[in-house]
Amino acid sequence: MKRLALLIALAAVAAPAFAQNAPATRKRLAVIDFDYATVHAYVHDIWGSDVDIGKGVADMLVNQLVRNGTYSLVERKQLDRILQEQNFQQSGRADASTAAQLGRILGVDAIVIGSITQFGRDDKKLGVGGGVRVGGVGIGGIGRRSSKAVVGIDARIVDVRTAEILGVATGFGESKRSGATLVGSASVGGVAAGGGVDMQSSNFASTILGEATRLAVDSLVTELVGAQSRITETVAAIQGLVADVTESEIIINKGTRDGVRVGTEYDIVRGGREIRDPASGRVLRRMTEKVGKVKITSADEGSAVGTVTGAPVRVGDCVGSCPVKP
């Protein structure tokens, strides 16, 4: 009995300490497909056609960040939908202002953009049989033997509110195997039936170029995780109204364009009498009473849906604070 009492006492002491050390809400991040204009000629020479390695690297980075667990990441489907709606062009992949605008629509704290600066063989000599050399990196065709593959990636973390660069990260990877080819045959390179390349396939990962890409992405993850403290998590102040009520769920007239994002909680208040300036008739203050809270579960640019706790909510109740009438 004494031992049981001691264990209970220790658990009571440990519980508050565990609560204090509980992880904070994860900051929300989006990753835009990387620009690969610098290495475009290499890519074409490797596979004989244009392959969007910028998308492939971005997808690999997102998967690794999800596994790491430091950030909350935007899903690929949601990102593609917004990119399509905004008619986003590949030429804008590395533009901080464009990325910040997309980040506000997505409702994230920061957005990662960047460029692939190296992708292929590292060779001091010009190759034969169609090999090219640009910026100190030589590339051979499919099946051509190579001693070393190198991949370099530069990334920037952009504040979605100001388009300020919060931090930079560099990923570099190289793989070297005696007698190994760069990507092997078409099947080893991960080329799908439609002509695309699955950079997350085991086939691509088994090549020295695949190994170098994974190492570059892994080193990039380490630097991005280390930059977490520079990202500010903010809750946008809104003056919204309840537009619709269905049981415990409501729709409000504010969305991601106003800074609303999934997971955020807002007070629901009911407007009362207005205090006016007796001289000008201008509204000085609007008296309110708190009704409850709403937690946002989904949002688009102009509206958001959330679950409610507290007293029954009415259409016209205020979310955040009440708009002041002129």
**Unreliable segments of 5+ consecutive residues:** 1-24, 124-146, 185-195
CATH architecture of the largest domain: 3-Layer(aba) Sandwich
CATH class of the largest domain: Alpha Beta
The share of residues in extended strands comes to 25-35%
The overall pLDDT average reads 79
Tally of domains = 2
Can you give keywords for this protein?
13 strands, Rossmann fold, 7 helices, disordered N terminus, five-stranded mixed beta sheet, 326 residues, 30% strand, Thrombin, subunit H, alpha+beta
Short summary:
By secondary structure, this protein is α+β, with helices and mostly antiparallel strands. The chain is built from seven helices and 13 strands.
Report what the structure shows:
- The structure is a single chain.
- By secondary structure, the protein is an alpha+beta fold.
- The longest helix has 19 residues, at 2-20.
- It has seven helices and 13 strands.
- 27% of the residues lie in helices and 30% in strands.
- It folds into two domains: 25-230, Rossmann fold (3-Layer(aba) Sandwich), CATH 3.40.50; 239-320, FlgT, C-terminal domain (Thrombin, subunit H, Beta Barrel).
- The chain has helices at 2-20, 40-47, 53-68, 76-85, 96-106, 202-205, 208-226, and strands at residues 28-31, 72-73, 110-121, 132-134, 137-139, 148-159, 165-176, 239-246, 249-252, 265-276, 283-299, 304-310, 318-320.
- Residues 1-24, 124-146 and 185-195 have low confidence and may be disordered.
